[in-house]
Amino acid sequence: MKTAQDIMNREVVTVLADDPVDKVGDVLLSSGHHSLPVVNSEDHLVGMIGERDLIDAHRKVHLPTMLTILDGLIPLGGMHEYEEELRKVTAVTASQLASSHVITAAPDEDTDAVAEKLLRKDVHAVPVVDNSGLLLGIISRSDILQHLLKP
């Protein structure tokens, strides 16, 4: 049985938490990856930035539909989505743009469990981190596919 550390890519393209959003876009495009880990100066995982995050950062913000009752404004759904859009379009650094709820894998985690995470959470890559959050590697869908087709 293989584990995450057996198939992970140890040479990970990352961006630093303080990197400007424009630099993140350049690194993402030049890397050919769909998402990148964001790390601090000690290589601890801070978050992930994907293509969707960068697209959202450059779109127009759509204001939520509001209902007026007795001079009060009541948002009709979508307030959380509005707050997320606003967070992304106002982001200046990688850490401000990054999704902080990151699906990760432990080094000794079974590759089937990692594959399940990739598919169920619909993510392109899963960072492999130790107990302290130190980034050790990354596993992409391609890595899982290679493992399954060429064991």
Please provide a written account of the structure.
- Helix content is 37%, strand content 21%.
- It has 7 helices and 7 strands; from the N terminus they run αβαββαββαααββα.
- A 3-stranded mixed beta sheet has the order 1-2-3.
- A hairpin with a 5-residue loop joins strand 2 and strand 3.
- The longest helix has 11 residues, at 21-31.
- The chain is elongated, with a radius of gyration of 18 Å.
- The model has no long low-confidence stretch (mean pLDDT 88).
Structure at a glance:
The chain is α+β, with helices and mostly antiparallel strands. It contains 7 helices and 7 strands; from the N terminus they run H-E-H-E-E-H-E-E-H-H-H-E-E-H.
Features:
151 residues, alpha+beta, three-stranded mixed β-sheet, two-stranded antiparallel ribbon, 7 helices
Set down the secondary structure blueprint:
Layout: H1 4-7, E1 15-16, H2 21-31, E2 35-39, E3 45-50, H3 51-57, E4 66-69, E5 72-75, H4 79-89, H5 94-97, H6 111-120, E6 125-129, E7 135-140, H7 141-149
Parallel strand pairs: 1-2
Antiparallel strand pairs: 2-3, 4-5, 6-7
Helix pairs in contact: 3-4
Shape: elongated
Instruction: Please bin the fraction of helical residues.
Output: 25-40%
Biggest sheet: strands, sense, closure? 3 strands, mixed
What is the number of beta strands? 7
State the distance separating the first and last CA atoms: 10 Å
- What ranges have pLDDT less than 50 throughout 5 or more consecutive residues? none
**How big a fraction of the residues is strand?**
15-25%
Structural class: alpha+beta
Q: What is the string of SSEs from the N terminus onward?
A: HEHEEHEEHHHEEH
- Evaluate the radius of gyration: 18 Å
What's the overall average pLDDT, rounded?
88
- Count every helix, treating DSSP H or I runs of 4 or more residues as helices: 7
Which assembly state applies to the chains in this document? single chain
What order do the strands of the largest sheet run in, or round the barrel if closed? 1-2-3
